[in-house]
Amino acid sequence: MEYRFTPWRSAYIQRAHKQTGCIFCKAKRSKNDRQAGVVLRGEHCFVVLNKYPYNSGHVMVVPYQHLDQLQKLSPAAAHELIDLSQRVESALRQAYKAAGINLGMNIGDCAGAGVVGHIHMHVLPRWTGDTNFMTTVAQVKVLPETLDQTYKKLKAAL
User: How far is the C-alpha of 5 from the C-alpha of 12, rounded, in Å?
Assistant: First the structure.
């Protein structure tokens, strides 16, 4: 078995536990979607940029309800969560020419959730060979565009 270690995530995870208030609830209440990174709002869920992306285009689909388990989500909100995930997949394939898509949820602290207590679906584009030595050697994540550029690109595609 081969292991991939991601030590650069440690600082983020440690900071996430010290945050006051829920970052998703703050984004939900924001009057400035661009500043909050909210790319799209639905009836039950919204799409927001990941401020610490694995790749450019990394977003999260987040229910408006602050819930800690998927099973607590109403059927209407759960359906919209998947519908928006499909829409984002299509936008990522179009805007980023993604060869693949990572889609997933980390529910609970021990499952790796960076934001514990508010479920969210990660959706991010992938390409063959999209990893490089910089994260391992220099603990630096190299992204080809700014979050503002990602916002504009996804906003147009969605």
Answer: 15
Indicate the domain borders of the chain.
9-157
User: Exposure pattern of 63-97 as b/e (b: 16+ CB <10 Å)?
Assistant: bbeebeeeeebeeebbebbeebbebbeebbeebbe
Q: Name the active-site residue from 44, 58, 118, 120.
A: 120
> Which DSSP state fits 39?
E
Q: Residue 36: how many CB atoms within 10 A of its CB?
A: 18
* Active site (annotated) includes residue 120: yes
Per-residue pLDDT tens digits for 38-96: 999 999 999 999 998 888 999 999 999 999 999 999 999 999 999 999 999 999 999 99
Judge contact between 71 and 63, C-beta under 8 A: no
pLDDT tens per residue, range 25-35: 999 999 999 99
* Tokens describing residue 37: 């990174």
For the domain with range 9-157, which CATH number is right: 3.40.140.10, 3.30.428.10, 3.40.830.10, 3.10.450.50? 3.30.428.10
Residue 115 pLDDT: 87
Q: pTM of the entire structure? A: 0.82
Task: Give 26's DSSP letter.
Answer: H
